[in-house]
Amino acid sequence: xxxxxxxxxxxRLVWAEGHGTLTDDDLFGYxxxxxxxxxxxxxxxxxxxxxxxxxxxxxxxxxxxLAALAATVDPSAPRAxxxxxxxxxxxxxxxxxxxxxxxxxxASTKHVGVFRSLDEALAFxxxxxxxxx
Length: 133
What we know:
By secondary structure, the chain is α/β, with parallel strands linked by helices. It has one domain (3-82, 93-125): Protein-Tyrosine Phosphatase, Chain A, CATH 3.90.190. The chain has 4 helices and 5 strands; from the N terminus they run E-E-H-E-H-E-H-E-H. The protein has helices at 24-35, 60-72, 89-103, 118-125, and strands at residues 3-8, 13-22, 44-55, 81-85, 111-115. It has a 5-stranded mixed sheet, sandwiched between helices. Helix 1 packs parallel to helix 2 and helix 2 crosses helix 3.
């Protein structure tokens, strides 16, 4: 599976990891599967793209559609954070594009940040150490 995830209820965090080749269908499927769950409403999110080897046919239109879809499931409060770890230039650029599109969505309540390293992303999320340890 191109995206795996686990829910850390103690930290109120969804930690997702991309693997291999990632398509926009994978991202939309992840978004629908995870964020339709009532038990993660208002949780922070980390999308770790370090294991992604290839992003298939990225499209600004699809990124904008993903940002719009994601905003529709945001709770009205509290404002959660979403960190994207993207060391690769393409993934980083696409992440920044998503960040901008997400910020333009009136219903969006998540603050998105895109980072080159896991440590930066964890700091943004207010997590002092790798929760997988």
